[in-house]
Design brief:
alpha/beta; elongated; 10 helices; 2 domains; five-stranded mixed β-sheet; abc type-2 transporter like fold
Length: 334
Amino acid sequence: MTIEPLRPTWRTTATSRGFVLPIIQATIIATSFVALLLISTHSPQPRDLTVDLVNGSTTSEQQQAQLDTTADGYISLRTSTNLDDSLRRLRVNDTYAVVDLTGDAPTVHLAGANGPTVNNTIVGLLDTAGVGDGDQLATVDHLSLGPDDAAGLPIFYLVFGVVLASYLFAIGSVNTGIGLTLTSHWASAAVFAVIAASVTTMIASVGTGTITTRHLHVALILAAASFATSAASALCLRVSRAWGTVIATVVLITLGNASGGLLPGEFLPAWIAPFRSLLPMGIALTGIRDATYFGGHDLARVIASLTIWAIASIALMRALAAHRNQTTPTQSAT
C-alpha cells in the first residue's frame, strides 16, 4: 500500500489570503487611479477664476452681467482703477488675467506660467461674453513658460518623481529596516530627502534648464515634500501591513496626482480641489511654481505645511508604537 504525501492546497486560510488579497488591492489601486485622474482631467471647467478689469467706458457691473449670462460664473471680475497694480497682482499669482479696456484696443494680460489651458479658457470666455465690445482681444504674456515647456509638464514631473520615489523609499525602509530604531528610520529618510532634492534640482537646472531661478527654494521644497511623503507613507504601513500600501497609494499618489497636477484648483471638481492645498504633492507643486515664476513669496507657508505633515506622521507613529508596546505585555500576561 502506497501512502501519498499530503499536498499543500491554496484553500488554506493563509494561502487564500495570499491569492485573493493582492488581486483586491491591485484592483482598488487601478480603479481609483483611472477614475480620479479621468474625473479631474477629462473635461476641466473653471469656477470663479479671478480676473482684474481695468475699466474704460464700460462699467465692471455691466461686464460682470455679461459674463454671468455667457460664462455662468466661470470668471469672477475684480474692478481695478490702476493697470500697474493689477499687473503686480498678476506677477504674484493673485489674479489669473488683467483685462485692460483703457487703451485704444482691449488687451488681456496673462501669465503663461498658468499654462495654455487656463489662458485659452480665459480668453475664450472673455471673447464669448463680449468683453471689448466685439473687438479682437490682444494678449500679452508677462510670465512665459520656458522655451522647451509647452504646458508646465517639467515641473510636474519633477515633483511627481520625488514624491513617488519617497513613497517607494518608505515601503523599502519599513520592510527591510525592521531592526532600525525610529530615530534611525527618520535619519535615513532625511538623508534620502536631501539626496533626492539635490540630484533632481541639479538635473532640472543644469541638465534641462527647467529650473532657472531660486534653486535653493526648489531644493528645500523638494526635500520637505520627500520627507513628508516618506513619513506619511510609513505611517500608513505601520497602521496596517495589509492595507497600508493601498491607502498610501490612493491618497498620496493617486489623489495627490489628481489634485496636484497641471490645472489649478479652480479647474478641478469641487470635492477634489481642496486636496491640492492639503496633500504634499499639490503643496510642493504650487510652491515650486511660485518660486520659479511668481516671485517665491509662498515659501514659508509651503515649508510649514510639509513640516506639519512630517511631524504629525511621526507623532502618530510614536503613539501607535507606544500603544502596541503597552497592549502586548498585557495580552501575554493574560
